[in-house]
Design brief:
Layout: E1 8-9, E2 34-35, E3 37-38, E4 41-42, E5 44-49, H1 57-65, E6 69-72, H2 80-84, H3 90-100, E7 105-106, H4 109-124, E8 128-131, H5 134-149, H6 153-159, H7 163-184, H8 188-223, E9 229-234, H9 241-248, E10 249-250, E11 252-257, H10 260-266, H11 277-286, H12 292-308, H13 324-336, H14 341-351, H15 356-367
Parallel strand pairs: 2-10, 5-9, 5-11, 6-8, 6-9
Antiparallel strand pairs: 1-7, 3-4
Helix pairs in contact: 1-4, 3-4, 5-7, 6-7, 7-8, 8-9, 8-11, 8-12, 11-12, 12-13, 12-14
Length: 369
């Protein structure tokens, strides 16, 4: 949910805001179940939830080695096969997709470069590797149409059964994100409301995105293009994907958090799957759960976590600090979970606008950690 933690970056937001809205309703989408026996082999799917952190790659690689096919959570692009086949070096590949696509620009280029090296190794071992993220494929097409025809393209986009819902959802998310940034510098109460509103919009985006992706994966299974043991990459907030695939595919579908083992070690057995308060709030809205007091508390804690966490910095693991992102996440979740709503409000005004390390020191003293 948290805006600064986006997995994919676009070169620009959807800025054409129109009065005409497209209604999105995926709650009653038709379900279809795919029998998953292909050439005598039962489908075995493992969904690996993970952030795009370098420290996660060794754990992702181990799961990939056990699979026959690898499904990435990223939009397709024309340079991908050239990179896998060794025609483009990973750094050249990143440059190409950053310059010549709209939505494939990696938010974490060092992670992407190292993952490309692993994927090339997996391709050499004969594994099938596919990019499956139809939501972002649609968004790429939207940008292309807007660039080619400007505002005149919006009417056709809204009429399109695939592009219309994606455009509407992205527009809503952009408006909510803009409001979030504007209110963050005002009162604490306004910031809490904007976080809650963004989480609601983001939950609708996740619902559409995962519905589209689960349908596409099921289609690939039905066609026989995917067989045997399948590794599916998924962001750690995309946990509903497992149930969506179970609704559509008749086979063994399991999941895991890539960094579960180090998470348990760092937290001394307390945390298996560290979820930031903003993600918990977003998934509440995804499931249709409402609890005003809990929603406001989660939003308040999310604000404190955002103030204290590193911004736009891709950390490289070292022998001294092998899990820099994970350790920070676990620490910050533990910290903010000690705060009630009033504590969040008081701390907000103490640390807002301060350098991160100073703010972190004040927060630790405030809580007594």
């Amino acid at each position: 949910m948290e805006p600064i933690a986006s997995t994919l970056r676009s070169r620009r937001p959807l800025i054409y805001i129109t009065i005409k809205f497209c209604v999105i309703d995926v709650s009653d989408s038709d379900k279809f179940k795919v029998m998953s026996r292909g050439r005598g082999r039962m489908i075995r799917i493992t969904i690996v939830f993970s952030p795009h952190w370098i420290e996660a790659i060794p754990f992702m690689k181990r799961r990939m080695k056990e699979s026959d096919a690898i499904i990435l959570e990223e939009p397709s692009n024309k340079f991908f096969e050239r990179m896998l086949n060794g025609i483009l070096a990973p750094d050249d590949y990143i440059h190409k997709i950053s310059e010549e696509t709209y939505v494939s620009v990696p938010a974490f280029p060092k992670f992407t470069e190292r993952l490309c090296e692993v994927l090339r190794e997996m391709r050499d071992k004969g594994k099938r590797i596919l990019q499956v993220e139809p939501y972002f494929d649609a968004l790429e097409r939207i940008y292309e149409l807007i660039d080619a025809r400007g505002k005149e393209s919006i009417r056709d986009i809204l009429r399109d059964p695939v592009l219309g819902p994606v455009y509407k959802t992205e527009k809503d998310a952009y408006v909510a994100l803009y409001a979030y940034y504007m209110t963050f510098s005002s009162s604490f109460g306004a910031a809490v409301e904007s976080v809650m509103e963004y989480a609601k919009v983001d939950s609708r985006r996740i619902k559409l995105r995962l519905d589209m992706r689960s349908r596409r994966i099921a289609e690939l299974v039905k066609s026989g293009e995917l067989r045997g043991r399948i590794y599916i990459e998924a962001g750690d907030i995309h946990q509903p994907l497992q149930d969506l695939l179970r609704d559509k595919i008749d086979g063994q579908i399991d999941s895991c958090f890539a960094l579960e083992k180090p998470s348990l070690e760092i937290s001394r057995g307390e945390v298996r799957f560290p979820q930031p308060p903003g993600d918990v709030l977003t998934l509440m809205y995804y499931r249709g759960e409402r609890d005003p007091e809990k929603e406001r508390l989660l939003a308040a804690r999310s604000i404190i976590k955002i103030i204290l966490q590193e911004r736009e910095k891709e950390k490289v693991p070292s022998e001294k600090d092998p899990f820099p992102h994970l350790a920070e996440r676990i620490f910050l979740i533990k910290l903010v979970n000690k705060l009630d709503y009033a504590g969040c409000r008081e701390l907000f005004y103490k640390i807002r606008g301060l350098p991160r390390e100073r703010a972190k020191k004040i927060a630790r003293e405030f809580i007594g950690m």
